[in-house]
Amino acid sequence: MSRILVVDDERNVLTSFQHLLGKKGHEVLTAKSGEQALSLLGSNSPDLILMDIRMAGLSGLETFRQAKAIVPKVPVIMMTAYGTTDTAIEAMKLGAFEYTLKPFDIPKLTALIERALAMGQLMRTPVTYGAADADARAQRIIGKSSKMIEVYKLIGQVAPSNVTVLIRGESGTGKELVARAIYHHSQRAERPFIAVNCAAIPETLLESELFGYEKGAFTGAVARKPGKFEQASGGTILLDEVGDMSPSTQAKVLRVLQEGTCERLGGHETIRVDVRLLAATNQDLEALIRDRRFREDLYYRLHVVTITVPSLRERKEDIPLLAEYFLKRYSRELQKSGMRLSPEALERLSAYEWPGNVRELENCIKQAMVLGQGDVLMPEHLRLGQSSAVQLRSAPESLNAVRELARQHLEQAPGSAHQHLIEQVEAQLILEALMQTQGNLAQAAKLLGITRPTLREKISKYRIQRRVHLNQREG
Prior knowledge:
By secondary structure, the chain is an alpha/beta fold. It is 47% helix and 14% strand. It is built from 20 helices and 18 strands. The longest helix has 20 residues, at 417-436. The protein is globular and about 65 Å long. Mean pLDDT is 86; it is low at 387-398.
């Protein structure tokens, strides 16, 4: 559950947000003025602030400036009517996460809130490495192998400077954790950290996401919007899966690195940005250069310093430490303290090749804790090869089934194929989780990575309660 502060001088807006966010399981604080909001921040640190631009008394923009001085790592979403978007854009230049127009599009607003909460969590959760007596709130990079000691040394050497760092490694090795460790130990740790997954954003949208756009730059561009480089100015930006960028986007990133400037789509104004760039990839950039799919000049700008994160199969001696860490990390969340691995289970973990690396190991341990009975996890509790999406990517028959399903939806439901396919897959995923946990809502929600209120909403939406017996117990 997250704590969200809503600041607006209209009581009906505050009431609507209390209802909307309360249903999602969030704690909602409300303030009718900027002055009241700043007073609340002195005693209550929220995870997110939603603030109206135009309010009586202290303006939204001035309240934002003062709030950022009190809680610099709390993301702020500015709420604005159409005629005040210039002020909202100014707030984004000063570090606001995003702005949203009134009247609200509820599904888009809900998705925006979830993204802001996720980014805030990344910024506030410290990442430590090496030391065993780490901050209890921190996420840790685990390992004592020689390859990981080398990674720790490089993090310590590059973190205090502003040098560009290229982080390489297979999927699931922890490249983003390394990037966040660099950020948290840098001189920019109190400034924004923004991670952009270049592979997850369609090529046609990535440029506008990174560099922003002017009003009228394309259909749907109803107002100017700053890009991620502007939002991260003064802080750090991580370009994850940097090898997936198009040539035109690569050229613009190169300009940022060379000149510290960029232009919004559809604009001519040169915008100066002060940002530290970290890049991550699981691809062979040298091969992409040979194939003329990646710019050689950008490559040399990116790998001023390169940190290579080893695969888990290259450091199997770290598996017992990682397993113990994940057992402790999820014991409170799953309310299963004291669980441990049997020697036979640990031996099985050490013998497996882990194509999905640390992420697959984490998912395997968490799934075993959810489904296991008693205090000792045995080999039969470990569903190796089933706990990672790696298996889907590596199995042609699974990919063919997904492609066929997608093709059918595109043919049979043109115009609504995306919604129908997502709903069909989501319903099946929820049903499978409930079946694996014998209908236990708490365990199914943890297995899915969502809250119980969200799970209940989806169960009702898809009428799943008619097909599976639901166990309402907490455990």
